[in-house]
Design a protein that fits this description.
Helices cover 36% and strands 21% of the residues. The chain has 458 residues and is an alpha+beta fold. It has three domains: 209 residues, HUPs (Rossmann fold, 3-Layer(aba) Sandwich); 77 residues, Uridine Diphospho-n-acetylenolpyruvylglucosamine Reductase, domain 3, CATH 3.30.465; 122 residues, no CATH class.
Length: 458
């Protein structure tokens, strides 16, 4: 099977060879993404999906403007829809700029796939990228499950994230691009061997490929075998869990100890993950297993992290949330936001700003580095909320329109940024923020407590 046939097969597997389907193509103007775009354009019209080209000008290099201008002209000439956004220099962090750039880029792709109702975002990751990822994870260490490489497809926002070029080597993509007369731009930073991935790219992978020309194929084979092994393990654990847990999802210590020793940690890990929605590394579960097996401690408590603890009694172990002291906010004061922490702001409202959705009703909200620190405070007469159309609305008007009783209006709190701009009228309305200007996305969450409740309802 030729690489082009494999490319088509991958698209067909994701049901993307359909002119009624829309896909977003992430294009950086490098050889990989330009080759991907060309491959898609050359599909027969009866198979070619509707294409939307997505490009982020990261403003990280002098030629960024040139690349954006070239792609704009290319899409005009090829009658392609282009969605372009900028990551302004003022929003660049001082450290971790690669991770921040990736977060900005994928947030942009996620917003596009949602707005356009596209079926997938396509990226040009290839076999060399897969090998580099494997080697980086091997060097870093961790659980076997963490060694899983780049997936050919995975869920992404309202669609899929698909990498149809994982069977292509970097050399094959370059040869294809040259044969098709494709114009592309080289990223000078890719030659900087001070970066770990670039050292692997320019030194380690070529050495291993020279040692064995089939190296990239072997990595792909290992990836497939590992995926199958992990799937089999998941199925086995799914069958074992009911044999060691009660209807109330408590772990029966005796039954768990009767499992073969090689299955005890994987089952324990799965039980903890299921009960806390938190990933635990098997490598760090040794002390937990020892505590479970310790007959000298038939009862007791063991903290797992800042959020969860285990309680043991009569041979049963339960997962329980740690009771946290919740900050109370007096109506006349401001209070700094503690990221990833619940904070009580009124007698019945508990709120939080989280890096991951804390509740199904959590609201994703884009922030910039200039927004921090955030604060909770009572609303004020001159407070305004940004509207999507570009205008503003007074918080007072919002409360009137929503028929909030006069006696309760004074209790309403707002979330403000470092410039005292209102981001959220808690329980009533969010300010509109252009998603593409954000450097990160947080989740704003609200839950209610009983008036007399000393503890949060969970």
């Amino acid at each position: 099977m030729t690489p082009i046939q494999q490319f088509k097969r991958q698209l067909a597997a994701q049901q993307l060879l359909d002119p009624e389907v829309t896909v977003i193509v992430a294009v950086s103007t490098g050889v990989d993404s330009m080759a991907l775009l060309t491959l898609l354009e050359q599909l027969p019209s009866q198979q070619r999906p509707q294409l939307i080209v997505a490009h982020v000008n990261h403003h990280l290099r002098a030629q960024s403007q040139t690349e954006a201008a070239y792609l704009t002209k290319y899409c005009q000439q090829h009658q392609l829809t282009l969605k372009l956004t900028d990551w302004p220099v003022r929003l660049h962090p001082k450290t971790g700029i690669e991770a921040a750039a990736r977060q900005f880029r994928y947030t942009f792709f996620g917003q596009l796939i949602t707005a356009t109702q596209a079926a997938a975002v396509l990226t040009a990751h290839h076999a060399n990228d897969q090998a580099e990822t494997y080697l980086m994870k091997l060097a870093r260490g961790g659980d076997l499950a963490q060694l899983v490489g780049i997936q050919a497809a995975r869920p992404f926002y309202t669609g899929q994230l698909v990498r149809p070029l994982l069977t292509w080597s970097k050399g094959q993509l370059r040869e294809y691009a040259q044969a098709q007369g494709v114009t592309w731009y080289e990223d000078a930073t890719n030659a900087d061997v001070e970066l770990t991935r670039n050292r692997l790219r320019h030194r380690v992978v070529p050495e291993l490929t020279q040692l064995n020309p089939a190296f990239l194929a072997h990595v792909a084979s290992y990836e497939q075998q590992l995926q199958q092994l992990l799937m089999a393990q998941t199925e086995m654990i799914r069958g074992l869990l009911p044999t060691v847990t009660t209807q109330k999802k408590q772990l029966t210590v005796d039954a768990w100890q009767q499992l073969p020793s090689s299955w005890q940690l994987p089952v324990l890990q799965a039980w903890l993950t299921q009960g806390t929605d938190t990933q635990f590394s098997q490598l760090k579960l040794g002390p937990v297993a020892h505590w479970l097996q310790n007959s000298q401690l038939p009862t007791g408590r063991l903290p797992l992290n800042h959020d969860w603890q285990l309680t043991k009694a009569t041979g049963l172990v339960a997962i329980q949330p740690l009771k946290k002291r919740v900050k109370k906010l007096r109506p006349v004061e401001k209070n700094m936001v503690d990221l990833n922490q619940w904070q009580k702001i009124t007698a019945t409202q508990v709120v939080g700003v989280f890096e991951q959705a804390a509740l199904p009703t959590s609201q994703p909200f884009p922030l910039t580095d200039d927004d921090w620190p955030l604060q909770w405070r009572p609303w004020q007469a001159n407070d305004l909320v940004q509207l999507k159309g570009g205008g503003h609305q007074k918080v007072r008007r919002i409360l009137i329109d929503q028929k909030v009783p006069v006696a309760q209006r004074a209790l309403v709190q707002v979330l403000v940024n470092a410039h005292d701009t209102v981001l959220w009228v808690v329980g009533h309305k969010f300010s509109y923020r252009q998603p593409t200007t954000a450097t990160r996305t947080v989740f704003l969450a609200l839950k209610h407590t009983e008036l007399k409740g000393a503890h949060l309802k969970r």
